[in-house]
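>> received
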Amino acid sequence: MRIALGVEYDGSRFHGWQTQQPGVRTVQLELEKALSKVANETVAVTCAGRTDTGVHASEQVVHFDTSAIRPPHGWVMGANVNLPRDVTVLWAAEVPESFHARFSAQARIYRYWILNRLSRPAVFHRRVTWIHRPLDAERMHQAGQVLVGTHDFTSYRTVHCQAKSPVRTLTHLRVERQDNLICLEVRADGFLHHMVRNIAGVLIAIGSGEQPVGWAKEVLAYRDRTLGGVTAPPDGLYFHHVDYPPGFELPRPERRPADPLRFF
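>> returned
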C-alpha cells in the first residue's frame, strides 16, 4: 500500500532534506530509518519539495510504498518514537497508487520569517532571519506584487539551479508585519533553487530603502542572477504547506494559530 505523511522539522542541524554520503545528517535519512523500523522492512520516501541546509518545514508531505499493514496512528506514533526530537510526523493516511507527493501537488507554500529589531535573537536563534535595520513591510509587499503571475525567474534562482525551465507561476505573495516580526508568504506551482531566499533578499533591500520599489521588477527583467540581490539566509525559511486535489482526501489538521512566535 502507499502511505502519505505530513512531517514537521527544524532544519537547523540538518544538511537539507535529501540523503547524501554516509555520515551526513539529513531529514530523509532520519525519516527512512525510523519508518523502516516501524515497517520491519526498508522504506524509501519521496517528498513534495526538497529543502536546503538550515531550512525548516511546518508541513512537508511525503509518500512511501510498503507491504506492512499499520493503522494511521501506528505509523505516526511508531515513527515519532524512533525519530530525533527535531523531526516529527504530524499525520499519516493510506492513499491510492496514483498519489505522488511531488507530482500530484498543485501548489507549494513557503513562509519566510524576519525578526526586525535592534537586538539579535537568542531563544529563536537559527529559526528566524535577523535584520537589525528598520524594514517597511508595506513597501516590501507592494514591491513583491510584480512577481505574481507566470514569469521567467532566472534572476531569482541560483546559478547552480538544475531545473530545465526557469518559468514558474507565482499565485500569491504577501508581506505582513506583526510587532517586530515580518512574514513573507509565497505560493507557486513550483520553486527554483533558492528562489524564495532570493525573493526575500530583494524585498529586504527594498524594505530597508537601499533599493527603490521598482527594483524587484527590474531584477525580474534582467533574467540574469548576477544582477540580482543577495540571497537571504536559510534560517527564516519554512516549507509551510502543499495543496493537493481534494479527491485524495488528505488529513487537514487544525491550522496552527496565527501566533508568529510559533513560526508556522
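>> Residues 257-261 have pLDDT under 50 and may be disordered.
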